[in-house]
Design brief:
The structure holds two protein chains of two kinds. Chain A is an all-beta fold. Helices cover 0% and strands 48% of the residues of chain A. In chain B, strands 2, 4, 5, 6, 9, 10 and 11 form a seven-stranded mixed β-sheet that branches. The chains are: A mainly beta, B mainly beta.
């Protein structure tokens, strides 16, 4: 199974400042087609998860452009350019290249300082 | 708008059974893979099972193989999860999610396995 490792576990951020979350996979997520099936999800307190990013860097409809995804192979990053209060929650990466099983990272909790 | 509404959760004793359902609307249900994902209290996300468009292909996480069965009814736009032999470690909020890669999620339904 592909293990997804996120860091940090907790990320205190000042409003208006940038934030960056790292996600590493135990093997390359490049599929034979050339696509890399790496997704990012946001889970606000008390809510269902919401997908933000798919295929490493493509934003889902309605996702603010302050969220961006990047990376390749086994190293990926989610960046928030300017954190807003609405961004508080837990962020998960997930791989869909080598499955079953589809696997998630352990989560990174973003909170306001 | 896409809507996924789970039902059927509740309290069940260890070894018992429960059937979850997910009512889908707002999209062409029959042309998408569908998935179940769970979240134990205070824990992260865990993929449970998925099913292809016509129900001919199904996949499960190892911990539920032989105990859970995923199914769908494209005529009723409905996704089910039959859970047998439930264990305490199956206690979680269960989410219905659209697509292999979960582009939309339901609100979740709590399953508690306890005596």
């Amino acid at each position: 199974d592909v293990v997804m490792t996120q860091s940090p576990l907790s990320l205190p951020v000042t409003l208006g400042q940038p934030a960056s979350i790292s996600c590493r996979s135990s093997q390359s997520l490049v599929y034979s087609s050339g696509n890399t099936f790496l997704n990012w999800f946001q889970q606000r307190p008390g809510q269902s998860p919401r997908r933000l990013i798919y295929l490493v860097s493509k934003r889902d409809p309605g996702v603010p452009d302050r969220f961006s995804g990047s990376g390749s192979g086994t190293n990926f990053t989610l960046k928030i350019s300017r954190v807003e209060a609405d961004d508080v929650g837990i962020y998960y990466c997930m791989q869909g290249t080598h499955w079953p099983p589809l696997t998630f990272g352990g989560g990174t909790k973003v909170e306001i300082k | 708008d896409v809507h996924l509404v789970e039902s059927g959760g509740g309290l069940v004793q260890p070894g018992g059974s429960l059937r979850l359902s997910c009512a889908a609307s707002g999209f062409s249900f029959r042309i998408f893979w569908m998935s179940w994902v769970r979240q134990a209290p205070g824990k992260g996300l865990e993929w449970v099972a998925n099913i292809n468009e016509d129900g001919s292909e199904k996949h499960y996480v190892d911990s539920v193989k032989g105990r859970f069965t995923i199914s769908r009814d494209n005529a009723r736009n409905s996704l089910d999860l039959q859970m047998n032999g439930l264990r305490a470690e199956d206690t979680a909020v269960y989410y219905c999610a659209k697509h292999k890669y979960f582009d939309f999620w339901g609100q979740g339904i709590l399953v508690t396995v306890s005596s």
